[in-house]
Amino acid sequence: MVNKLIAKILPYMPQKLVWQFSKEYIAGETIDDAVKASKELNKEGILTTIDVLGEFIKNLGEAEANKREYLEVIEIAERAGVKGNYSLKPTFFGLLIDTETAYGHIREIVAKAASHGNFVRIDMEDSPCTDREIELFRRLKAEFPSNVGLVLQAYLKRTYQDIKNMKDLHRADIPLNFRLCKGIYVEPASISYKNYDEINHHFLEDIELMLQEGMYPAIATHDKPVVEGALKLIEKYQVPKDRYEFQMLYGVTPALRKSLVDQGHTMRVYVPFGKQWFGYCTRRIKENPKMASVIMKAIFFK
Ligand code: FAD
């Protein structure tokens, strides 16, 4: 109830106030902010994945500018020696308006990262995008086998089968690299698991399948029981430390993050930045009012 109320009023709150509790989760507005935040994390032994905030553009003209911004991010971050890679959302390049145009832009970004021997992660958006994002990944993977990875969402009932269906892209020398997360969007019950335990069960089932197949899972969660379950699987399959990584969002559960780093596991933090932070934060909360309780805590329990 309170969560829903906050989700409703948030877009009308002054940006300055919203920034007070968003700044913990966003690196800033500029590329320099993202590079600075990444270098700080690098000092703690943490890798990063930089993301320019923005999604679901309405006008294809914006896609060209967004591509240019990503190319600049890569140029600057590589020059600064950031230890990290890049994440992007295909709807930021017009995936749902014109798939081929979006593909062309994203291909250029992946080619630029590849020219530096680096890597781009294709984020997974809501379910109308799933097939298109898998197809996009397939095409990019054919051209840039070592430089591109995909996100999969444990709450989608199709995910276990999607992993199996993509086995043809796996090579022993270049393992398929999937980030697995729970999933942030509100999806219909017909296609998604809704219950916390059920989602966690499928999360670990998907990770187990990836490990059995020799794939490289990026285990993206802040949920301690899921982290512990993943650690048990890593132990069960005696997975070497360079065949998986953990990932967390900027500013979230730093203590859990540190404990994994201290145990010698690879950790990568998602570093979002950009002028569109306000829209991003308010949309996330509208989509998933449960996030409002996180914000309530940030405001009242500091
Ligand atoms: P939860 O059970 O949701 O959370 C566990 C605990 O973590 C919570 O109790 C809370 O204390 C803390 N927590 C979780 N999230 C936050 C937060 N944002 N702020 C503050 N505290 C928090 N989703 C997609 O759909 N597509 C993607 O491409 C995608 N990429 C992601 C990349 C990374 C690196 C990460 C970590 C997540 C990504 N997500 C993505 C979001 C993901 O799907 C989940 O919505 C989010 O991670 C919360 O799930 P959880 O596993 O942490 O578990």
UniProtKB/TrEMBL annotation:
Pathway: Amino-acid degradation; L-proline degradation into L-glutamate; L-glutamate from L-proline: step 1/2. It catalyses: L-proline + a quinone = (S)-1-pyrroline-5-carboxylate + a quinol + H(+). InterPro entries: FAD-linked_oxidoreductase-like, PRODH_bac_arc, Proline_DH_dom, Proline_oxidase. Its EC number is 1.5.5.2. The keyword Flavoprotein applies. It comes from the Bacteria. Keywords: FAD, Flavoprotein, Nucleotide-binding, Oxidoreductase, Proline metabolism. Residues 35-293 form the Proline dehydrogenase domain. Its cofactor is FAD. This is proline dehydrogenase.
